[in-house]
Amino acid sequence: MANRIHIRDAQLVTMDQALGDFASADILIEDGAIRAVGPSLDGSGAETIDGAGMIALPGIIDAHTCLWQTVLRGYVPDLWPGAYYAKLLPLRSRYTADDNFNAAWIGGFEMLSYGTTTVVDYCHDIRGPTFAPASIAALKETGIRHLFTYSFMPVAPDAFAGPQDRLADGRRVYDEFHDPEGLTTIGFGVESIGAPGLEQQLTFARDLRAPSCIHVNETGTIDKLVARGLLGPDLLVIHGNLISNPELERMASAGMPLCFTPTADTQGTPADVVRRAIERGVDVVFGCDIPCTVASNTLGELRVMFNVQGYLDGAMERSFSTVLGRRPPVRPGLPLLTPRRLIEAATITAARVLGLGDRIGSLTPGKRADIVLIAKGPFGDSVVDDACAHVLLQTSPRDIDTVLVDGKVRMKEGVLQGFDARRAAAMVSDSRRRILG
C-alpha cells in the first residue's frame, strides 16, 4: 500500500504560477511525492495533518552554509576584527572526522527546526578521506535534503599527498554518494581566483556535470574568469560584494547566479550588490554561511535581507533625489525586495539555481514533498491577506509546526523527529574538548 499523507485546510503558497495560491486547500502526498493540490481532496486511508490556522509553503532552501562550524557556535560573534580568518579557520587543523559528523548532525537538525528542508553544505574542512563521508552520514541521519559541496580549498595538515589525491577523493565521494533521485547530491567548491588548481577543479566538476561554487571577495574576479572562459550557469558565486556592474552583466549573459549571505555580507561590507545583480538579470539566492557567527536560520536571514535592503533602497533614493518625509515614494523597483520575492528566492529560484527545480521548490504535483507548515500564531492572523508577509514579518521559529522532507515528517507539532538533545549536548562537549582543549 502506498505511503499517503493528507494535509488539510491549510493556506497554501505554492510558488507555482499555474496553480496559484489558495486561501484554504489540501495537499495529498503519496510515496514522497505531491500527488494533488486543491480544495477538499479525497484523502481516504491517508495519515492526516490538520493544516487549519497554518500556512503551507515549499520547504526553504539554504544555498550556502558551512555546517562544520556548528560545534563552534558563537566562536566569532563579531566579524569586524577578522577573527574568522585569524582564529576560526586555523582550528580546522584540530578537527577529526567525528567532529565533522557532530557538526553536520546538529546543524542539519537545527536547520530543519527553522523550516529549512534543503541545505547546500559547503565543507572546506576536509583533511582526509574520512571527513566528507562523516559529514554526509550525519546529514543522511537527520533526513534533511542536502547538496554536499566538497571544497577543494586545502586545509593543513591533511592526509592528501597532493592536489591530484584531493581530486581523486572528491571523485570517490561523488561516485559513492551522489544520488539525484534521493536526498544526497554532490557538488564542488573550487578554490578562489589565483589558485593554480582552479581551472582543473572546475573542469573536473563540469566533466561530472556537477554544480560548483567559487568565493568572490575581491575586485576583478569575474573579469579574470571571463578571460579564461570559465563563466557558466553551473558556477555559483558566493558573496560577491565587490563585483562591478559590467561584471554582473557578464554573469547575467552567462546565466551565472549569486549567493548572498545576509549577516556575513552586511557586517562592514558593501551590500548593494543584491540590487545591482537583480537589476541586471542575475539570479540571487541566500544562505546563512557561518554558524560560528549566526544561527542556521534561513528564514531569519531573509528577514535580515528585507530590512537591510529596505534601508539601502531609501539611502539610494535620497542620494539621487529630494525626498520629503520618512520614505521615498513607491515606484517600480522600489522597494526591491518584498517578502514574497525573498521567499521565492529561497524556494523555486534556489531550486532552479541548484539544478533541483524539477524536484523541489514549489508545491507542484509530481515534485517531491518538501513542505513546511507554519502556524499563523496565537496572536491573530494578519489583516492584509499576504501569506508571505505574515511568514516573514509576523512569525518566529516557535511557529514552525511541521516539516516534511521527501514526504517524511521530520518535525511534528514543533518537535523534531529523531533528535536527541542529550546526544547533541554530548557531541558539542566532545568536539569542543578536542578542538579547543
Can you put this structure into words, describing what you see?
With 437 residues, this protein is α/β, with parallel strands linked by helices. It has a domain at 60-320: Metal-dependent hydrolases (TIM Barrel, Alpha-Beta Barrel), CATH 3.20.20.140. The chain contains 12 helices and 17 strands. It has helices spanning 83-88, 97-113, 131-142, 163-177, 198-207, 221-227, 245-254, 273-279, 298-320, 339-353, 387-394, 421-436, and strands spanning 4-12, 22-30, 33-38, 47-50, 54-58, 60-65, 116-123, 145-151, 184-189, 212-216, 235-239, 258-260, 284-286, 371-375, 400-405, 408-412, 415-416. The strands form 2 sheets. Strands 1, 2, 3, 4, 5, 14, 15, 16 and 17 form a 9-stranded mixed beta sheet that branches. Strand 15 (400-405) and strand 16 form a beta hairpin. The model has no long low-confidence stretch (mean pLDDT 97).
Alpha carbon gap, first and last residue:
53 Å
CATH H-level name of the domain at 60-320... which superfamily? Metal-dependent hydrolases
Named CATH architecture of the domain at 60-320: Alpha-Beta Barrel
Broad CATH class of the domain at 60-320: Alpha Beta
SS field, number of helical segments? 12
Largest sheet entry: 9 strands, mixed
Round the mean pLDDT to the nearest integer and report it.
97
Number of strands: 17
Q: How is the CATH topology of the domain at 60-320 named?
A: TIM Barrel
Overall outline? globular
